[in-house]
């Protein structure tokens, strides 16, 4: 790949140069907006994690303890809503996507920078409204199922307005990315020279634009029913409570891939860099992202096998569900093929990438049980589903995010992480995660129901293991954030290309200048030619 001469931080000044609050609040720089999203979403990750620790602490004992069952329901709802709507959905697309899409396609910025800033503040406005609903906190569960959500005294109407604003932010961000990828690629960057992270973000953006309006409309209907008495979901007024579930999952299953596809894109960047091999099956990985996005719209009904849905519909949704495994399997096999006989470096980004592959395989294989009618009926409302969901979302999306944060930290901040501390944190996170969630598969097969504040004493042993595991996991996350904060001030200065990557973001300075590049680069080669020719090495020492 032919690059323009490397930009230096002094060419137009680093994007971090101006430090005033006003300069950040009114910035049109995609990099700064990406950092704002990173800080906001990681803050709510920590808040949701603290709530999860409280839930696990109560489940340490089978009977009444620590707080009331109603408080448990409220905390359960807060944990799910924060983690899904304020962290997992926007964490990679809006943060790392905002920062790196223009850099990786050789552009100065996104195509609509003002719309980009509006999207962020729309997200913040949604957060403020959602926090306002805590005056009368939710106890509905994070799915807000009717008929309870239309009857409860909780501030569901206020919450609906907040979620609508968060959804609007997601739609505008996805639209901005689609147009940017279509119109602002550097000269010579054809579709088949795009980094796979860009392919993943393109598929993600399509889902955001097409699926998110459905959830926005759904919550408007719910608010209208509560305020105006219109009977969309009330059987007494000619409505159907299952209609809410259909609307909710028509959005929420595709949005699973808004969470996971960007993480898969990160893994597709990290694996070849730290294997020093060209990515295996580039086009298959690229097209599989689009296939996952398409199939994701067809399988929402597998969340409703126990809702009273007709048998024929259940069979059709079960049949379609298994098709999702095909493009997902393509990605996993291609990553493993890339690793085969590679010159593998086990730096922290690679450790998280390998962890993603390992945990996501477990999450995917256990999903086969839930996609089959015969077994889903027995394990759907048990802790088996809780374990599967967390192996997919935290083992997948969050580990992918951690891989991306460790991989791009030098580029974003201009500092290197302490690798020794990063590996200690990784080890604790890996052990703690499996101690926390693997026992839940066993609990689910034994019949322990999910969402219950109290449980039979025979399940206590494995619940103790899960709770202790959550403490180990929390310690690992604490060390990781400590490393981030410490390295911002004391980390070694990062070279422009510490990992010897070949995608365009590594051809500019660390941190990048305001304009991204001294000159718009011209692309003439595929971005994964590792091992095909002598690679340009960048001087610089990583902090150990």
Keywords:
Cyt_c_oxidase_su1_bac; globular; 0% strand; 544 residues; Cytochrome C Oxidase, Chain A; cell membrane; metal ion binding; mainly alpha; 66% helix; disordered N terminus
* Shape, principal axes of CA atoms: globular
Output the CATH homologous superfamily.
Answer: Cytochrome c oxidase-like, subunit I domain
* Sequence of secondary-structure elements: HHHHHHHHHHHHHHHH
CATH class: Mainly Alpha
Query: What is the beta-strand fraction?
Result: under 5%
The helix tally amounts to 16
Mean pLDDT: 91
CATH topology term: Cytochrome C Oxidase, Chain A
User: What structural category do the secondary elements indicate?
Assistant: mainly alpha
Care to count the β-strands?
A: 0
What does this structure look like?
With 544 residues, the protein is mainly α. It has one domain: Cytochrome c oxidase-like, subunit I domain (Cytochrome C Oxidase, Chain A), CATH 1.20.210. It has 16 helices and no strands. The protein has helices at 9-12, 21-25, 30-58, 69-105, 113-132, 148-151, 156-183, 196-228, 241-275, 282-295, 311-339, 348-371, 373-379, 383-413, 419-446, 460-490. Helix 4 (69-105) runs parallel beside helix 14, helix 9 crosses helix 14 and helix 11 (311-339) runs antiparallel to helix 12. One of its GO terms (biological process) is oxidative phosphorylation. InterPro entries: Cyt_c_oxase-like_su1_dom, Cyt_c_oxase-like_su1_sf, Cyt_C_Oxase_1, Cyt_c_Oxase_su1_BS, Cyt_c_oxidase_su1_bac. Keywords: Cell membrane, Copper, Electron transport, Heme, Iron, Membrane, Metal-binding, Respiratory chain, Translocase, Transmembrane, Transmembrane helix, Transport.
């Amino acid at each position: 790949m032919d690059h323009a001469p490397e930009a230096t931080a002094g060419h137009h000044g680093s994007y971090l140069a101006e430090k005033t609050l006003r300069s950040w609040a009114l910035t049109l720089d995609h990099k700064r907006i990406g950092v704002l999203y990173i800080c906001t979403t990681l803050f709510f990750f920590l808040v949701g994690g603290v709530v999860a620790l409280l839930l696990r602490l109560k489940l340490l004992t089978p009977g009444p303890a620590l707080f009331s069952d109603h408080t448990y329901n409220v905390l359960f709802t807060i944990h799910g809503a924060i983690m899904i709507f304020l962290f997992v959905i926007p964490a990679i697309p809006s943060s790392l996507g905002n920062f790196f899409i223009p850099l990786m396609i050789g552009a100065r910025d996104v195509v609509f920078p003002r719309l980009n800033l509006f999207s962020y503040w729309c997200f913040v406005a949604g957060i403020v409204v959602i926090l306002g609903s805590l005056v009368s906190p939710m106890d509905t569960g994070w799915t807000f199922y009717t008929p309870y959500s239309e009857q409860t005294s909780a501030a569901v109407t206020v919450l609906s307005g907040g979620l609508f604003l968060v959804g609007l932010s997601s739609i505008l961000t996805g639209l901005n990315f689609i147009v940017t990828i279509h119109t602002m690629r550097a000269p010579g960057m054809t579709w088949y020279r795009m980094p796979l992270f860009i392919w993943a973000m393109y598929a993600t953006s399509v889902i955001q634009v097409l699926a998110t309006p459905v959830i926005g409309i759904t919550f408007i209907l719910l608010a209208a029913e509560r305020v105006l008495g219109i009977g969309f979901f009330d059987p007494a007024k000619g409505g159907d409570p299952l209609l809410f579930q259909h609307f909710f999952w028509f959005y929420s299953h595709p949005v699973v891939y808004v969470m996971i596809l960007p993480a898969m894109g990160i893994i597709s960047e990290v694996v070849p860099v730290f294997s020093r091999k060209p990515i295996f099956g580039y086009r298959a990985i690229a097209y599989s992202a689009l296939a996952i996005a398409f199939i994701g719209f067809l399988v929402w009904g597998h969340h409703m096998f126990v809702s009273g849905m007709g048998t024929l519909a259940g069979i059709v949704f079960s049949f379609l569900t298994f098709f999702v495994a095909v493009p997902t399997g393509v990605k996993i096999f291609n990553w493993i093929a890339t690793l085969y006989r590679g010159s593998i470096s086990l730096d922290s980004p690679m450790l998280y990438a390998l962890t993603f592959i390992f945990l996501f395989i477990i999450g995917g294989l256990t999903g086969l049980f839930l996609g089959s009618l015969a077994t889903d009926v027995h394990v759907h409302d048990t802790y088996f589903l809780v374990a599967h969901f967390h192996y997919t979302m935290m083992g997948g999306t969050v580990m992918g995010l951690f891989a991306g944060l460790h991989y791009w930290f030098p580029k974003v901040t201009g500092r290197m992480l302490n690798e020794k501390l990063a590996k200690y944190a990784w080890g604790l996170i890996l052990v703690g995660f499996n101690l926390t969630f693997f026992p839940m598969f066993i609990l689910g097969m034994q019949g322990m129901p999910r969402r219950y504040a109290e449980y039979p004493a025979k399940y206590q042993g494995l619940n103790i293991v899960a709770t202790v595991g959550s403490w180990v996991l929390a310690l690992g996350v604490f060390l990781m954030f400590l490393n981030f904060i410490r390295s911002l001030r004391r980390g070694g200065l990062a070279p422009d290309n510490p990992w010897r990557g070949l995608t365009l973001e590594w051809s500019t300075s660390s941190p990048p200048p305001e304009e991204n590049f001294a000159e718009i680069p011209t692309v003439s080669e595929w971005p994964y030619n590792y091992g095909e020719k002598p690679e340009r090495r960048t001087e610089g020492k990583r902090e150990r």
